[in-house]
Amino acid sequence: MSEFSSAGSVGGWTRFVTARPRRALLAALVVTALAVFAGSGVADRMGSGGWEAPDAESTYTTRTLEREFPDSQPNLLLLVDSGSAPVDDPAVAAEASRLVERLSAEPGITGVGSYWQTKSPALRSADGHEAIVAARIGGDEKGAGDVLDRIAPVYGGVHGPVEVSVGGPVAVQHEMQSIIQEDLLRAELIALPVTLVLLVMVFGSAIAALLPLAVGIVAILGTNAVLRGITEFTDVSVFAQNLTTALGLGLAIDYALFIVRRFREELAAGAETSVAIGTTLRTAGRTVLFSALTVAVSLAAMMVFPQYFLRSFAYAGIAVVLLAAAAALVLLPAALMLLGHRVNSLDLRRLLRRRGTAGSGTGSEAAPAEGSGRGWARLSALVMRRAPVFAVVTSVGLVLLGLPFLGVKFGTADDRQLPATAESRVVQEHIREGFPGSPGGGLEVLAQGVATTGRYADFRERIAALPGVRRVEGPVMGDGAAYYEVLPEGEAVGQGAQDLVRELRAEPAPFDTSVTGAAAVLVDSKEAIADRLPWAVGIIVVVTLLLVFLLTGSVLIPLQAVVLNALSLTAMFGAVVWVFQDGNLSGVLSFTSTGDIETTLPVLMFCVAFGLSMDYGVFLLSRIKEEYDRTGDHAHSVTFGLRRTGGLITAAAVILAVVMVAIGTSRVTNTKMLGLGIALAVLMDAMVVRSLLVPAVMKLMGRVTWWAPAPLRAFHQRFGLSEGEPAPAGGRDAEAIPEAGDQERDRVAAGA
Asked: In this structure, are residues 478 and 68 in contact, taking their beta carbons and an 8 Å threshold?
């Protein structure tokens, strides 16, 4: 314990995490093993839906129709292809009748109907060689998936004169879930080795490179266990697993990079191991904690939305961020305590280094070469000399990249999210293109209350007279209720169909009416998001302002951080519309454009990308603030901060982008959009906003950057984060002569 007591700056936290490092690592190993056990099979308990608002009118109507009229809500469609014979051929009809009879007897199947029973033209293709058997699988998503797994092999394939393909919403969701799990495994197999190679390139040392990867794996396994527990109480989307992998690796690597890099700097400066850990936790450790809080808040904002698709990302994101930070702040220091100078072992870059460029100590113990730091110092000096030019050009460029988002159109996810060869998508495309009225694409109007047959008939005529109505079927009568099938003109979820939903809901009736269907779900989802979005943005902005103020003590820097972070997302949103909505690069990226963007995706991407941008912003600002507290020199502090963190932030962004691109190789379009969009956002933030725009804006603002009114200064002195030594009395201006210990750094920056 003598090392701890010899360093007055080393506090109780350092003692706690380093006093018994072997026990800490053993406990972590046991907890991780338990997490593997607890999280096993989590994907099988997840759903692939969650886009609808649970308290919306369309959701209520759907549930009521499922209960009162099961035939009205088929989610299983068997596409029966009769080959060269017409579907009315006696042999075809006989075989189809046998299929219907067998399907009706299957456990879990209700509401079986077919063209051969009803002779409805909507259930027969225009060419007369395909027809539909429709049924409903009851229960929740998991139960329906189990039933589908059991019956699909039995009913799919050739049956005498017909060939049957299995489709419908339940098949689309189930196939999407399976593909996402397969793609996630492939993404992990791609990302892990590439990430390890990049970490070796960043650190040189293979030992140092393995530490961030270990932290990420612990965070991912722990989050899977948390999600497994959450599935016992509420629905969780399978898409959230993609975020678990991406953030688990990305943020864990960010945090571990920051801590390991600072620890190696302290060792290279001659500090003992325990003192180096204490300094690292007091500076980089606190920065990691603040960063984790800002990212967690951005993700927690999705909790305000009612859709479980968005809430699932909040569950996964908060868990993985906190676990990554905990592993970086507890397990990583324990490992570093045991390794000491051996953290620099197995230096795989030593053959590429020039002689004499290693830092103090032996080659294996030296800190990373500072050549890249000089490059960042030169860049900072250039940006600050031409600050107005860089600020204007960069800002205008980012705004221009975001302009395509002004033409965004919102829609719903459908079978076209799947690859073109997926059976359920093939079935839906046959139905969409070959059947009159696209069965399943209409609206259902539920009428509740006692009414005469005449009143039901009158209401049917009023529905048929509405603009945009192609056909009305019904009413289908029940016990105190009835429903109508309304087929809109044009696309099932197009603007005309959405307008028709509003017309139907506004149409007066002598009984209670409610509307559901794909267009109604979209209308309700858009309204739910629009209603909650100001709350989500407000939570993110207010908490971000507070946390950045606690970090910096400035009133203006938090405002700058929020504005520049939002500006860094413009390229992502513009690219999402230009690529995925408008279909540019669809051939290269292998997806089918539907002409719109799923309603919840921009919200999800904003929350994730904003949090990651704040992650990098906190890293840069904390180092600038630390140096400013020590020297009081604004210009030097900005240069110093960029020099010390520019390469680190860029490396972290590249590694996270690699993980997100691996996620973006998914065959499901929404996952592809999420991965590639966030990869672009983090690269733009690290390489443009943090490298060019932030130093330019801070130069233009000058020392006023650090201004705060007296009451807030007093608040920050009491509750804020202060990592560096206080500035000398009177402070310094940007032209002040640096202390002797800083002359070399500033000569590099000024001489660029």
From this structure: yes
For residue 89, what are its two tokens? Answer: 């051929």
Scan for tokens 């696309």, then name that residue. 491
pTM: 0.84
Helices and strands counted in the chain (H then E): 29, 11
pLDDT for the residue numbered 349: 58
Q: How far, CA to CA in Å, does 396 sit from each of 72, 390, 689?
A: 53, 10, 12
| Contact status, residue 307 vs residue 525, Cβ threshold 8 Å | yes
pLDDT for 1-60, tens place per residue?
Answer: 333 333 333 455 666 666 777 887 888 888 888 888 888 878 778 877 777 888 899 999
Are the CB atoms for 71 and 100 separated by under 8 Å?
no
Structural Rg of the chain based on CA atoms: 30
Cβ partners under 8 Å of residue 123, min gap 6: 114, 115, 131, 132, 134, 435, 439
Q: Quick check: 423 and 713 in contact, CB under 8 A?
A: no
- 294 touches 541 (CB < 8 A): no
CA distance readout (Å), 382 to 391, 407, 564, 628, 693: 12, 37, 20, 20, 12
Q: What does 522-580 look like in DSSP terms, one character per residue?
A: HHHHHHHHHHHHHHHHHHHHHHHHHHHHHHH--SHHHHHHHHHHHHHTHHHHHHIIIII
pLDDT band (50, 70, 90) for residue 352:
low
Rounded CA-CA distance 464/476 in Å is: 16
Amino acid at 705: T
Q: Is the torsion defined by CA of 70, 161, 441, 412 positive or negative?
A: positive
**Residues sharing a CB contact under 8 Å with residue 389, sequence separation 6 or more, in sequence order:** none
For the purposes of burial, counting CB atoms within 10 Å of the CB of 272, is it exposed (0-12), middle (13-18) or buried (19 or more)?
middle
Annotate 582-634 with three-state secondary structure. Answer: CCCCHHHHCCCCCCCEECCHHHHHHHHHHHHHHHHHHHHHHHHHHHHHHHCCH
Place of tokens 């936290």: 13
**Token couple for 282:** 């007091």
Q: How far is CA 631 from CA 8, 199, 262, 316, in A?
A: 21, 32, 19, 41
- Single out the residue of 215, 339, 220, 369 nearest to residue 273, CA to CA: 339
Tell whether omega for the bond before 54 is within 30 degrees of 0, i.e. cis. no
Cβ within 8 Å of residue 92, ≥6 positions away: 80, 82, 85, 86, 161, 162
Lowest-confidence segment of 35-49, 203-217, 620-634, 713-727 by average pLDDT: 713-727
Beta bridge partners, 485, equal 444, 473
Are 463 and 503 within 8 A, CB to CB?
no
Q: Is 178:113 a contact under the CB 8 Å cutoff?
A: no
pLDDT tens readout for residues 546-598: 988 988 889 999 999 999 988 989 999 999 999 999 999 998 999 999 889 98
The token duo for 202 is 């960043």
Three-state secondary structure call for residue 47: strand
User: Exposed, middle or buried: residue 265 (CB in 10 Å: 0-12, 13-18, 19+)?
Assistant: buried
